Model the fold of this input.
Amino acid sequence: MALFEKRYTNKVLLDDTEKLTSVIENARTVDGHTEYVIRTQRGPLPERSWRVCRRYNDFVQLNGALSASGLNLSLPPKRIIGNMEPDFVARRQTALQNYLHVILMNPILASSLPMKKFLDPENYTAPLHEIALQQVSLALRSDANYEVGKAIPDMGWRLRKHYYTVKNRQNPKQELLLAWVEFGPDKHLQDKDMQGVFKSLGTLKHAHIEGIVHQHVTENGALTIRNFHAEGTLRDILCSTKPKQPFIKKYGNPKQTKSLSASEIATYGYEILEALSFLHEKGLPYGHLHTGNVLLSSAGAKLLDIENGLLGLPAFYRPYVVQRRKLHATTQVDVYAFGHVLYEMAFGRPLMEATCSDLSHCDSSLKNLLDVILSPEALKQDLPTVPHLMEHPFFETAKRTASTNAGSMEKPHFKLSSHLKDALLEASNKAELRLRDEQKVARHQKRLVKVQEMMSSEEEMKKRKQKLVIFKTRRGDRGKNRQKKEQKLAQEQRSLNQLGTNGTKQVNGKSPERSDSPTSTSTATSVGTVTPPSHGSSDLQTNPESRKAPAPPPLPVSSTSFGTNLPNVAPSNERTALLGSICMFDKSKLRKVANGVH
Done:
């Protein structure tokens, strides 16, 4: 029997609070319809992943089950014609991916049984309600005082916790609520020690802890019976819902919410701290504080389900706790959860994030208290203890009232043997060790993701630099080619400028044909004289070679042999006639004119 107990105690059980992430990898056509391949990962490790294939009709059924929450989840609509076209399938895959992302980001929808079955059919297809009813019947078959009534399906957020109405044969008018829950992954107590602790829980008495009417422990889980409160828990009061409704309907999208006043928050908050302080002093691990585990009665606030830590159940805020390395002890988890309870009482809605930085619409003293617990800077350090919180100025009035009423209240009582205290301490240490290990894995995966992002960004930067270098090189090559073309065109232009209109070379920087034009200036006005080049000449302004190297002066010639000393240029007919008239000029034939004075 000892061997069996040891093997069962070390059994690794599934943690339903671990975060699931899903990615639709691709879509494929099977038997005339489209199936979407979904890869789902549990927790931060990629090794813990699997693939499921779902059709669009499966998404429609899931949406119908989640529609009880009252949330608009924007499932892509149906399409009768053309639903097999590749473009339409690709668009629908993107829309379905966004649909899954919205669901998994909502803690209420993500923890629902329809969503778990959709993504993880291997672990959640078992008939959990039928198995629970069998366990309850076996546990109460030897007890004639209680009779199991109707089942209350999905009353709480835990998938493996089931509720039933119970009738007490000795007191038929008494309304009782039975809860059956399986052991969780942090169950480290031996069966014998579990029996002893539960027997002591039956005798626990505290003004702010709801007592247990009847309890029973089996090898698979535990059964507890408590008084039923028609007004429900603190969360039911804040959401204005009825306690027996399904969890997803009550808290998915409540139509009407309300918040509590600052004085009420201080009173109920201080009473919760008193209960936590009592549990911490007795060495009883809790770690399951949230508004669904708090009752509001005429005697004040009372804690529920104080046995959850003994049964190894994961906490409601565990996904947030895993991301914070400083929240490694059960007492610190209680303080962190207390901050969430304060926030929900103040604003009438739960805090859907691990930290809170926007508290502008809040009482100043309450804002300071929430900053001490829920601010990002506070969670980077060790949180204050429960006794330190009880000394906060926000609870000053509530503390005076509690001290005044202390004499009229029943004295707290809870007794454990030294052996059970040691067993509880060892079990708590093992649970905290698992939490630290998960926190280490989460931090390691975060670092890996950051490194991968940095590497991918560096690779992208390298690719961009390479593309920029290639672009500049190509642009430089194009510039060089353009420059070569311009140089070539300039050379051709200069060669064209050196050519005359008839293909002859220029003389003294001017074409022979152009030298006789009306706008040009003759190079020689008379025999033996040289006229300097005119600075207003258009050729000198446009021809760079004429500016750099001026043409040499013409050779001197005599009046009798003018034609013989001309440069060796093939003259045209007009130029020959001009030169001939110049050479044959005889000044003796000119008419003499007397310059008279009139």
